[in-house]
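Bumping with the actual sequence this time:
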Amino acid sequence: MSVPRRFLAPVVLPADPSCSVLRDAVVDVDADGRITHCGPAATAPPLLGGVPLTSLSGILAPGLVNTHAHSPMTLLRGLGGDLPLASWLQDAVWPAEARMRPRDAHAGMLLGCVEMLRYGVTTSAEMYAHAEQVADAALEAGSRVLIAPAYFDRPGDDWHTDLAAIGKWIDTDGLRFGPGERVELCYGPHSAYTLPPEALRATAEEAAQRGALVHIHVAETLAEDVAQRELHGSVPQLLQETGLLDGRLLAAHAVHLSADDVRLLAASGAGVAHCPGSNAKLASGIADLHALRAASVPVGLGTDGPASNDDLDLWEEARLAMMFCRLATADAMVLTAADAFLMATSAGAAALGRTDIGALRPGNWADMIHLSVDGPHFAAGLDVEDGRLLANLMWAAGSRAVQDVWVAGEPAVVDGETVTVDRVAVQHAAAEAAARIA
């Protein structure tokens, strides 16, 4: 962003802890792409001469934060669509991924970024191979990404080499880099069932030296949980024993947890990526979202991969989270629209250990979305009580309302179309890569 700018909207949702609804409010963004002010227009600082004013209709809100994704898997959509997780991975996905080249991963990630940006998702926490190409694709699209190169202990894989490569990359380029610090590097040990405790212990040591986030699948299926309890007590207990709970940790899925497991995660400050859509499709189970939130575990929403979901629409995950949590507790008020909005924004950022995204507050990156209310989903308009406005947004409108998107103050989507890349060309490139892999 070359010059400061003021954004004016009838409604601004800053995603603060109380989920405020600001009426006739402004957001000021500096030349570096960071927010300098967010509040009612009547009490805003004077607009300096020469500072452009962008007047918006509808709602201005933070960009959504996808806390767990494998977005290059856009190339594998529909593959093994009716299989349980173990068969889906071993018989369908992993063989196809073995045929994926670096340029294929770039094409798949670029398509994933286009999809997410058009849905208002400005940040995604990715776990995948070909990590440099994944990062390059995010930069090309204008997205923000936390990339955790995945590693395993399988025939043909050497986790020692992969672990060392991540450390070397961080030491060379820094933990965060790119325009607007759009890329953050993380560690991606796949899971407790695909790596030995030695690898988890080494990961904890390497990540601690660099202050890096560790992104790992945790207790996703019942079969995994039973096996790990026999070996280690539970996956969270293993994470504690290997030192992973002593640093920044993101536990993806976290479906099969005991009360003690929840307490371990809460005591450590670990974040959880809740993926209700993928968990349901693969029949992995329903995470106890109420227990996690009651224990003050930071919980965000994740789509998982677009071959196990099969879209990257975080608004849909918010609706599923509300529905499953209400069904599980028989309480229609246990997870409100405001709660779900915060899970998709500021709570998601907290789960990643980030305080500079997910909310419209001074010092944060200006990752923002403009939501149109010109449609059947907002027939009642904006002149309704705050609770009803949030309900319309989360239950009825969702991704169809996203009109414009900015990342670090720079436009990424204008009038529903990406502006840094040609969506049609991206789709063609992804289709060619998908056909070759298949």
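The tokens above came from a reply further down the thread. The mean pLDDT is 96.
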